[in-house]
Amino acid sequence: MKKKPSKNKMWGGRFTSKPSNLLQKVNSSIHFDYKLFEEDIEGSIAHAIMLAECKIISKKDSSSIITGLKKINNKFKKGNFKLNPELEDIHMNIEAQLQKEIGDPAKRLHTARSRNDQVATDLKLYVRKKNDKLIKEISNLQYALSKKAKSGYNILIPGFTHMQTAQPITFGHHLLAYVEMLSRDKSRLIDCNKRLNENPLGSGALSGTSFPINRKITTKSLGFIKPMQNSLDAVSSRDFVLETISSITICSINLSRLAEEIVMWMSSGFNFIDLPDNLTTGSSIMPQKKNPDLAELIRGKTGRLISSFINMSIVMKGLPLAYSKDLQEDKEPTFDAIENIELCLQSMTAMITSLKANKENMELAAASQFSTATDLADWLVQNLNIPFRTAHEIVGKIIKICVDENITLEQIDLEKLRKIDKRIDKKIYKALNVRDSVERKISEGGTSPKNVLKQANQWIKRLENDK
């Protein structure tokens, strides 16, 4: 008795039995690649237009295909498209539905196309669209930081090294540091677009096609800049995903650093900032708690984003040319990384926009822990012509006196200073004032309020012009 052939209409011709339940379960990607629905429709419409223009299929069939695809897309948007897990992926679900909608013309859509170049195109369209959205989200966060930096341009806070008080800076200066970091993050994503704008469609399974296609037509229709020039490379490369996730990962690390500082600043040990109730949570047992969960989750999600990059790297590292089924595993880390960084950027923007600075606590901390010691050393160099290393040693001795007597630098007696060097006079106390210290940092990129206000205004204007 002859075995019944496989019911799979895509590749069942040479098979005499259908895939086992286990194979179907492992092989199915519909539970995640449905996110490529709109991109698959977009790519298929462009392909159908090209097939007709190149006279590979009739204009009538092409028109029927395009109408059917648009109808299916509308069904999906309204939530009326039922996914069939037996059809493996979103591509075959759409093709099967198209056959139900328009009949035999649907069978012509896959002419001169493989799922290999189809999937590569869909994924590239998806990443490109999301990349543009992420660039805008970064700009939104930069704008929020710049506005907050402008409002805090003259608020003093301690700057740290090794988490020890180092020198006084302004709150605005600290926030603008993240604006600069995010600018580089944004430039990396913008640069990714150069590779995201190369069209893989028309490369077939791996070797191109014998049909007289015109890849420039689909390139123009889909908004790409040029066709990819090697069919093997086009269907098997996912470096555009790796590059994008790498850029996302770097951005997430920068966000994690800011999130850590928000957690730290909001802690009872610092009490530098406060967040509104709607962006914080409480405790199930401790009624006094107000927790910065949003910042903590951004910090925690960074590990997840880093793992997405590692995941993709490991998938790709051992793959020979051309396509291997391993590449099905490219989508979940891609979707996860993009969705989570978007969420993190939006969350951080909300926190920065609404946080309130506790100026009094910030400025008290800025004036503590001998934060102007470097200014004192600089004064000795600039006014007494003492070599910096000698000045460094002298200030160290002065700090020791202050520690022993439990006083601040500004409280030390002038006579005790003159015992160290007779040339020291009362002008030295101006070097010890915290606000004077900050206002003297006028070098390019320095923390002086004048510099910070100027930079904040420049960023605000630049970001408003980019909208």
Structure description:
It is built from 19 helices and six strands. It is mainly α and 467 residues long. It folds into three domains: 25-108, Fumarase/aspartase (N-terminal domain) (Fumarase C, Chain B, domain 1, Orthogonal Bundle), CATH 1.10.275.10; 115-364, Fumarase C, Chain A, domain 2 (Up-down Bundle), CATH 1.20.200.10; 366-466, Orthogonal Bundle (Ribonucleotide Reductase Protein R1, domain 1). Strands 1-2 form a two-stranded antiparallel ribbon. A two-stranded parallel sheet has the order 3-4. The protein is elongated, with a radius of gyration of 31 Å. The N and C termini lie far apart (70 Å).
What keywords describe this structure?
single chain, 467 residues, Fumarase C, Chain B, domain 1, Ribonucleotide Reductase Protein R1, domain 1, two-stranded antiparallel ribbon, two-stranded parallel sheet
Question: What is the CATH domain class of the largest domain?
Answer: Mainly Alpha
Shape: elongated
Rounded radius of gyration (Å): 31 Å
The strand count comes to 6
- Helix fraction by DSSP (H/I, runs of at least 4): 55-70%
The tally of domains stands at 3
CATH superfamily of the largest domain: Fumarase/aspartase (Central domain)
The helix-strand sequence is HHHHHHEEHEHEHHEHHEHHHHHHH
Q: Tell me what the CATH architecture of the largest domain is.
A: Up-down Bundle
Percent of residues in beta strands: under 5%
Low-confidence stretches: none
Class by alpha and beta content: mainly alpha
Mean pLDDT: 92
Contiguous helical run count: 19
CATH-defined fold name of the largest domain? Fumarase C, Chain A, domain 2
Biggest sheet record? 2 strands, antiparallel
Amino- and carboxy-terminal Cα gap: 70 Å
